[in-house]
Specification:
The complex is a heterodimer. By secondary structure, chain A is of the alpha+beta class. Chain A is built from 13 helices and twelve strands. A five-stranded antiparallel beta sheet of chain A has the order 4-5-8-6-7. In chain A, strand 10 and strand 11 form a beta hairpin. A six-stranded mixed beta sheet of chain B has the order 1-3-2-6-4-5, sandwiched between helices. Chain B is built from eight helices and six strands, in the order E-H-H-H-E-E-H-E-E-E-H-H-H-H. The relative contact order of chain B is 0.12. Classes of the chains: A alpha+beta, B alpha/beta.
Chain lengths: ~325, ~210
Amino acid sequence: MRPFIFDSAATPREAVETAQAWNAGTNGAAHFLAGGTTLIDLMKLDVMRPERLIDINALESSDFGRIVFGEGGLWMGALVRMADAAEHPQIIREFPAIAQSLQLAASQQIRNMATLGGNVLQRTRCPYFRDVSYRECNKRDPGSGCAALDGFSRSHAVLGTSDQCIASYPGDLAQALIALDATVDLASPSGLRRMPFAELHRRPQSRPDMETVLQPGELIVSFFVPAAPWARRSVFLKVRDRVSYEFALASAAVGLDLSDRVVREARIALGGVATVPWRAAEAEALLRGTALDEAAQDAAAEAAFSGAQAREHNGFKIELGKRTLKRALAQAAVMEI
Amino acid sequence: MHETDCQSDRSPAHSRRNFLMVTASTAIVPALGPAANAQVAARDVNPSAASDPVGFVLEINKRQHRVALDVRTTLLDTLREHLGLTGTKKGCDQGQCGACTVLVDGRRVLSCLTLAASVQGRSVTTIEGIGGSGGELHPMQQAFIEHDAFQCGYCTPGQIMSAIACVSEGHADSDAAIREYMSGNICRCGAYPNIVAAVNQAKLSMRA
């Protein structure tokens, strides 16, 4: 691991001001350290090379570490540990897709360490990204190429890819947040800003190294999930090589608002198959007003993957992704709420 | 509680590192020869600030340990290499196998992905800290022995720490729950059925 300067911040202001002052100079990047389950791992592998770490775990005793049910929905601080949100009885009851996405992610040790803010920023598991002995990786080294394009691509994305990167977004929570129309609050020295969570991640296009719209030194403060009609009837379904402790080959977060079995509103986000947490807006539109019969499910699944592009080894994800979505829709439809 | 000095201060490796830092800052590096030069030159970030040992106190198994460490040192390496607590094992060192599981403030975490400096002020429990004061085994240790819940034994300290937390979290109500909540601990020998049996036995005496 390369040397870095380590300090901790006692307040959010101290954290963002320290990071901004550092980043404004000629230094390499300053990074916030929360659970460390991605950052320390990738620093050991020499994939991430921060020159300064600002430990923000002391903020856990503030609102950063709280889960609050308030006016109109659920607030979750960025330093809430995955395990605590996964097992929160009211989240399980009122926002089941959120709880399920967390229960199905990682192991209990990692869920005890990893925070919600860090989780949504988790880096890809693309083996060519994680192994620096591969010279070509546009995420690690912009302009160097992409070893995955002609490499072993079984785990890679089929949606949102570019000719520069096909790395799959690895997380689960982000899909649930998108399906439930969450917003995210971000702090910087110039103040607080709020945006739809679905706008946080950037598709790789020509700059796979720029994974989010976060500015250098900007810090995720919290997530807000509105108590929308489809929040209670929501499901997170994850399909993977092992039954536990494994990344998704395909996943679907689904929320439904039904009236007499007819779909008033549908929300769909897909994981394991895309370069970013993927909202399937066309599929949602096709489901509105239908009775969610098999034909409607088929049409939605076809629409969700109509733009899919497979490489040599990941073509199976297109069919798997469609079936995962259809099963999630069927499960949500029969939920008793 | 009493304090013990970090043993690493006396270890040859650590002394050499301190020595290099001292010589670098007093500009007599050339006297150390080409190898030492290369080592110092390879530091590409403000070395005096980034690599100097940092002193702090860690609470391990209810004892305070004063340590002086490079901030890059993980909790796992601190336990094994600097404090002589080698019960915690290094498996993958990448957060994938669970062999390094310890408790921090009672919650199971991976010590290989934890910087020692980030657990100042917290209470760390390792496999060495779970037995009775008279050397009695913890019920989970006893159950692992009685059920042959290991073959080579390398993953076992991590399995036991994880299993103790699995029970205290309330995740050991069924075989399925035990398997799910122990999935972060890989056993290459495949002792899984025996591990489930051991957890099922120990959870009864842990409740008592």
